[in-house]
Amino acid sequence: MVGHNNPTKKSTHYLREALNRVTIPGMPTNYEKSNAILKINFSVSRRAQKITEKLLQTKTVLFRQKLGDALLDELADCAEIDIVNLKIAPAKQYHKKRGGRTVFKRYGYYRPAEKYIYITNFTAVRGQPLAPKTFLTTLLHEWMHHYDYCKLKLNSIHTKGFYLRLSSLTEALLS
Question: What is the pTM of this model?
């Protein structure tokens, strides 16, 4: 069942959050491990950089799907991890409004058990294609969760270390 009212998904989420806080004397927590790794530990290929350049020039679902798949496959090869499945949806972003104002938007998500990334291609309110840089940032953000799970064996959470690794990857692709 898809949605926020699925009790199994909620209990799994709370269990995962509780595990992030588990401490064993002398062993670093997941949070501490994530914060200790500040950059990616692989070289980005020239091919990945070229795909990124092309991706920044596209706005259609079709081309973002093709180039996104190619980029993530190339990054997986560079990092020596399993590939991840990608779905670029021709849909508006999931969002919540309060008092007539948008207070929450979800650009995409990663499901580690399925090795699956889902990204919507259109903005929440106006239904316009995501700006190329926003799309790329979202794609790399979700792939970084995949990298954390597969390569670093982390329960990937949003720590300072996560965002530094994401920044390291983005800089390598855009240089």
Answer: 0.83
